[in-house]
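In response to the reviewer comment on reproducibility (Comment 2.3), we provide here a single inverse folding case reported in full, input and output, so that an independent group could reproduce the run without further information from us. The structure tokens appear first.
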């Protein structure tokens, strides 16, 4: 099964991708996570991407397409994958179609997360994660059971993404509207587009996704 989760920053696609990965044995391919790993490692791609990400803008298509092509090749052969944060432009959507065609793979569904954008700022600026195991938390919506201690691994250090500051979030939303939302009609025309209510509780959204994917 190959699915794309599409929506503005903070819509919950990363959280849901992690859940679907476990339930369906899919590989989560997050271009944002790949880029953050590249920045942390100081690779060429990371050095190119760092300032762009901090400004909340999109990394050039050629860099992203090369990076994802490698990962799709490696993920091929399993139960399939969930694309989280890719494609984000028309050029990326078309490149993905070509990659899938070459490897005889088929895109099943593109799932759009419908959200109230005023609520997104609060969701994003409150996010933090465990520095050891990466599990995500939120100042208001999902605090660790014991303050300052990770529920999953007992870690006591947490980090926040540099681009989750309110100023950067505005730029990321603008990039979504100008460059990413315009690809929705492309998938609508292919008959692959479906939607979930991204403002529902996390478990409800998972339920909506599972009922959509049940028929795939
Ligand atoms: P995300 O974790 O998906 O919110 O991505 C974080 C940042 O990485 C974005 O704001 C972009 O700067 C960059 N990025 C991630 N995926 C892409 C993509 N498919 N195309 C261009 N830039 C991307």
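Designed residues, in position order:
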């Amino acid at each position: 099964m190959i699915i794309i989760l599409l929506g503005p920053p903070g819509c919950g696609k990363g959280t849901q991708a992690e859940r679907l990965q476990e339930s369906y044995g899919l590989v989560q391919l997050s271009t944002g996570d790949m880029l953050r790993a590249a920045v942390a490692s100081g690779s060429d791609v990371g050095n190119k991407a760092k300032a762009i990400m901090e400004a909340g803008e999109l990394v050039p298509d050629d860099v992203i397409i090369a990076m994802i092509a490698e990962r799709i090749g490696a993920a091929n052969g399993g139960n399939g994958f969930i694309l989280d944060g890719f494609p984000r432009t028309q050029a990326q959507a078309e490149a993905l179609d070509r990659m899938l065609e070459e490897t005889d793979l088929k895109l099943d569904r593109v799932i759009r997360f419908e959200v109230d954008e005023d609520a997104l700022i609060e969701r994003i600026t409150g996010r933090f994660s465990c520095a050891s195991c990466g599990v995500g938390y939120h100042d208001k919506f999902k605090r660790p059971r014991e303050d300052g201690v990770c529920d999953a691994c007992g870690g006591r250090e947490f980090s926040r993404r540099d681009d989750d500051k309110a100023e950067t979030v505005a730029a990321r939303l603008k990039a979504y509207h100008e460059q990413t939302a315009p690809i929705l009609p492309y998938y609508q025309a292919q008959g692959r587009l479906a939607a979930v209510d991204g403002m529902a509780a996390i478990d409800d959204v998972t339920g909506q996704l599972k009922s959509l994917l049940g028929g795939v």
